[in-house]
Design brief:
The protein contains 6 helices and 7 strands; from the N terminus they run H-H-E-E-E-H-E-H-E-H-E-E-H. It has helices at about 1-10, 10-35, 80-95, 110-120, 130-135, 165-170, and strands spanning about 50, 55-60, 70-75, 100-105, 125-130, 145-150, 155-160.
Length: about 170
């Protein structure tokens, strides 16, 4: 058995394959560890009613009927700024098949949120969150994105920067 393994390791594709499997396991383990405190899959998402930057109110209940991508971010978060274009592109790709909204939390004043929105050319709805909604969703790391079912149940969540491909894949699953 050992001789067969030594022989296989001499092939580049075996070495690369083993490296890729190890990398995938490490990435999956880190992602699971980061999301360990978040509400679990199948749990009803905590309800909220929040104000938008334009003064309208949006409730989670009003978003039912379609899948919801709910992105929590903070205006001081550099990673959130990098991910904002991915959220915007996801909204374009999803079209009318899903709601893509974000919740700004952990900000000092509304002007900080407005500066972030302008700087990063945010074109998706931004809700002004508070400590209550942040606590209800157990968000303590930014960005954190929840994927909700059309019935308002949490299907999955991801913490940290997520590529457009990663966001799209999670939305489709």
């Amino acid at each position: 058995m050992r001789a067969a393994w030594e022989h296989a390791r001499r092939r580049w594709w075996v070495r690369w394959g083993v490296d890729l499997v190890v990398l995938a396991v490490v990435v999956a383990a880190v992602a699971a560890w980061q999301a360990r405190r978040l509400p679990g899959a199948g749990t009803p998402a905590p309800d909220f009613t929040l104000r938008t930057l334009s003064g309208e109110t949006v409730s989670l209940e009003s978003l039912r009927g379609k899948p919801v991508v709910l992105a929590f971010w903070a205006p001081w978060c550099g990673v959130c700024g990098m991910e904002s274009s991915n959220i915007s592109q996801l909204r374009s790709l999803a079209g009318g098949s899903a709601h893509v909204v974000s919740v700004a939390v952990a900000y000092d004043d509304e002007e900080a949120v407005r500066r972030f929105v302008t700087k990063h050319e945010v074109d998706y709805p931004v809700l002004l969150g508070d400590d209550g909604v942040q606590s209800a969703f157990r968000v303590d790391t930014f960005p954190t994105v929840f994927f909700l079912s059309p019935e308002g149940r949490i299907q999955r969540a991801v913490v940290g920067y997520t590529t457009l491909a990663g966001l799209s894949w999670r939305l489709v699953l």
